[in-house]
Amino acid sequence: VQLQASGGGLVQAGGSLRHSCAASGSIVSINAMGWYRQAPGKQRKLVAHITSGGSTNYADSVRGRFTISRENANNTVYLQMNGLKPEDTAVYYCKVVRSGIDYWGKGTLVTVSS
Question: Mean pLDDT per 10-residue run, the chain (114 residues)?
Fold first, then answer.
């Protein structure tokens, strides 16, 4: 499974950004898809997660501001980020799970200025 992520960038506090991550290759039986982030000097943490059936889960810090969605036909997962805060500054990674194996995309940097 190969993951092509896009999005990220520099935005002012209160602004919005959208990430996308497209899976290709052995995409049969992709289960969950999700987004994680890693702030400088901190561990990588879950941001949002969506199952193949569309059930979602969010970190408390982003619930109500971020929305995860997926297009199964295109094997693409999206993360719409609204109301961005400086503490959202991090490298964002997409992840898909296929047959119990995690596949990670390259990280994209999001910088939120105050």
Answer: 92 97 82 94 97 94 97 92 98 93 94 96
